[in-house]
Give the backbone structure.
Amino acid sequence: MLYLKGRSLPAAAPAAIPASADNWGLSFPTEGESPVGNATAADLARYNAYYLGDTGKKVIYLTFDCGYENGYTEQILDALKKHNAPAAFFVVGNMIETAPDIIRRMAADGHIVGNHTYHHPDMSAISDQAAFQKELDDLAALYQETTGETLPMFYRPPQGKYSTENLKQAQALGYKTIFWSLAYVDWYVDNQPTAEQAYSKLLPRIHDGAIVLLHSTSKTNAELLDDLLTKWEDMGYTFAPLTDLPEAAAQPNL
């Protein structure tokens, strides 16, 4: 099956980056191996965009999308600290405004805080460079005001909605666009998966160089993260920050 954020579709052959808006999607032909995205790693590399890290190492890049504080982020931070595991938290304006102390802790704990835009709109619907830039700049300014630090230059499109133009826009601003190679349906706060359901997706599908997407609003994630990280460690994996992503091969932009 092809996994899109919020739905599944029949698997299809990988395609080049679509000229029009699309949703980031994955299919998993073989569990334990890198999935197939609806754009290849080489396609994305043209725009300093990634969905996989170093596939030659048993390494995992942990990322969390943070739309708002739901009472679980500090438990997640505690588990990461216990395992000395770096992560990236992609935040929106509401998260910084309503939970500034947690944002400051993310930075103090050595995690990357990434740009998930200020308002969490469908960025693929924004073709104007100035409007696109404002969504990212406003979030970056709020982060700097809150922490006194410069926001790291990592961007994740809300809902995984993107287009070639979006990737060009983000690249022109100096951002790396970060998709993901493993996720599961964890964002419905009133319909949380059981630990067994989470493990059934997150353990057999883990792979070398995985960029894992989890949501910090998830009660299940908070409760199982310590054990999940232990299980991945027992499988031989280590955890690396997005700053360790291999530099994309230089290719001309299209």
